[in-house]
Amino acid sequence: MDDWLKYSEEVEASWVTVDLAIFTLRDDQLMVLLIERGVEPFLGRPALPGGYVQKGETLRAGALRELWEEAGIDASRLHLEQLGAYGEPRRDPRGRVVTIAYLALGPDLPAPVGGTDAERAYWFPVSQLHKQSYELAFDHADILSDALEEVRRKLEYTAVATAFCGKSFTLTELRTVYEVVWGQHLDPSNFRRKVIKTAGFVQPTGEQRLPPTGRPAALYRRGEAWLLSPPLLRGGGQSA
Amino acid sequence: MDDWLKYSEEVEASWVTVDLAIFTLRDDQLMVLLIERGVEPFLGRPALPGGYVQKGETLRAGALRELWEEAGIDASRLHLEQLGAYGEPRRDPRGRVVTIAYLALGPDLPAPVGGTDAERAYWFPVSQLHKQSYELAFDHADILSDALEEVRRKLEYTAVATAFCGKSFTLTELRTVYEVVWGQHLDPSNFRRKVIKTAGFVQPTGEQRLPPTGRPAALYRRGEAWLLSPPLLRGGGQSA
DNA sequence: CCCCTAAAGGTCATATTGACTTAAACAAGG
DNA sequence: CCTTGTTTAAGTCAATATGACCTTTAGGGG
Predict the structure, then answer these.
(1) Which of A85, A157, B128, B169 is 20 to 30 A away from residue A209, measured at CA?
(2) Which residues of A108-132 are buried (b: 16+ CB within 10 A; e: fewer)?
(3) Rounded to whole angstroms, how far apart are CA atoms B6 and B112?
(4) What residues contact B172, with CB distance under 8 A and at least 6 apart?
(5) CB B159 within 8 A of CB B79
(6) Which residue range or ranges hold the Nudix hydrolase domain (chains A, B) (predicted)?
(7) Which residues in A lie closer than 8 A to residue B58 (C-beta atoms)?
(8) Protein residue nearest nucleotide C27, by CA to C1'
(9) Is there a contact between A14 and B16 if contact means CB atoms under 8 Å apart?
(10) What is the three-class DSSP state of A96?
(11) Is there contact between A214 and strand D, defined as CB under 7 Å from any strand atom?
């Protein structure tokens, strides 16, 4: 640690945290997990779940642990990817805190339970975020906004939409993911055609599922491909 | 800082650094800026430029400052975007150091000059990186690999290729960027057609440039669009 | 058996792509 | 001042993909 000395005036120790923007679909709405902060600063304010990275812990492991501690969610089944680092000097009143934001997606997840630092945890509809009175703690509004944009873009050129579905799913369910996340209607027929001919996106399980009414739907599971080529572009309001 | 106390056993102070993967094109080769480390650890080994973030400094400002200090490059004209955070517990032998990696792109840049912590700085051809004997310090090989993949993907759906060109450029120059970065030949005619009809990608300046021989080429500048729709996909080896 | 519903599959005009050809604009050389 | 070489620019065309529809199929319930 010798060569740190000459920086003693300019370099400072930092604390590193992880924050999670975790999304799921509940009754055809895109929901994000928020907590009500149980400690200062921003006590009582809504925030993304997160907390300090611990000794010897990878960033990813820290994200998984915080999700479990603050909301009782086992993220091992989730899609989890890093979003980026947020390190504005004054983003945390307690000192220099750099946070690594993670993006998580999962199928219809259980109601979360509050944890140690979180008074309570709950699913909140993304569509209601703009409502005044909903000011998130720290710079979490920025993080959440970036996370949303990332999800919407990733639906286009990766198979990440399947992370919102169960192990097997119908094409209608998959299309609903796109419709809800993009907030636009897609033509069922054209959507089916594109998805099926996109190599490695989905593969039929051979089984079926009965809808409440109507013809049985074939079930699919994720294919091997992660990157979609060609991608499913959301053009300007079209239908597939 | 009160609530940090209860974590005293598990939470540790960290040092935050920035590292830069900066690319440019020099005589039709993709080059990355490397430095030879002038201090321990990894003294004498090649590495990405980078260093500690200072007090009150944003991460981005730290990246710009390090680039100037270690290679004498003024990055204010460059395209600079965050790549992600790398925080494996043992990635730095000196202790817990989390680095925020930045990706920078610029037009044919001047030969860099060595700085304080860098014995020397130099442009290195990306194509030569796999060569054994070229083992970068820390986890910089991972960062560089991620940066390369990011550049290649971003060429597809953003106008970032223009960052490799000067203020005005010919379509042949722009095409060369794609060809060098993707390592694949593109049909000049089809490339022209796509670029021109992609709204907001480029706009003609009205001026021309005389090539060493042949018909004058029209000059273009960047358009207003950042996201390309439709994107320029690199399919499977085709021509536009 | 008939009706309702949702899935699955088909049609068709238009737009886009990839491969290729042709025309245009300069410099140099005889 | 006409020819040649070279590079940019523009055009052709068959194959494919897309967007907007329509039709058929396979259930359940009355």
Answers:
(1) A157
(2) ebeebebbebbeebbbeebeebeee
(3) 48
(4) B188, B217
(5) no
(6) 15-149
(7) 87-89
(8) B213
(9) yes
(10) coil
(11) yes
The answer to whether the Cβ–Cβ distance between A11 and B11 falls below 8 Å is no
User: What would the mean pLDDT of B59-80 be, rounded to a whole number?
Assistant: 91
List chain B domain ranges. Answer: 13-131, 156-222
Residue pair B91/B17 in contact (Cβ under 8 Å)? The answer is no
Distance from CA of B99 to the nearest CA of A (A): 9
- Kindly report the average pLDDT of chain A as a whole number: 91
Judged by a CB distance cut-off of 8 A, whether residue A43 touches chain B is: no
Closest C-alpha among B127, B121, B103 to residue B180: B127
Supply the pLDDT for residue A4: 46
Q: What is the dihedral of CA B142, B143, B148, B149, to 10 degrees?
A: 70
Q: B13-131 adopts what CATH topology? A: Nucleoside Triphosphate Pyrophosphohydrolase (3.90.79)
| pLDDT (tens digit per residue) in B83-132 | 999 999 999 999 999 999 999 999 988 877 766 666 789 999 999 998 86
CA proximity to A149, closest of A84, A92, A210, A212: A84
CA distance to A45, B14, B23, B24, per residue, from A94 (Å): 16, 15, 37, 40
CATH code for B156-222?
A: 1.10.10.10
In this prediction, residues A85-113 reach a mean pLDDT of 93
Which comes out higher in pLDDT, residue A71 or A5?
A: A71
Q: What is the pLDDT of residues B206-235, one digit of tens each?
A: 999 999 999 999 999 999 999 999 999 997
Confidence of residue B163 (pLDDT cuts 50, 70, 90): very high
Q: Residue B100 and residue A98: Cβ atoms within 8 Å?
A: yes
pTM above 0.90, yes or no: yes
Q: Residue B115 CA to D7 C1' — how many Å?
A: 43
**pLDDT over 80 at B239, yes or no:** no
The secondary structure of chain B, three-state, reads CHHHHHHCCCECCEEEEEEEEEEEEECCEEEEEEEEECCCCCCCCEECCEEECECCCCHHHHHHHHHHHHHCCCHHHCEEEEEEEECCCCCCCCCCEEEEEEEEEECCCCCCCCCCCEEEEEEEEHHHCCCCCCCCCCCHHHHHHHHHHHHHHHHHHECHHHHHCCCCECHHHHHHHHHHHHCCCCCHHHHHHHHHHCCCCEEEEEEEECCCCCCCEEEEEECCCCECCCCCCCCCCCCC
Nearest CA in chain A to B40: A3
Helix/strand/coil for A166: coil
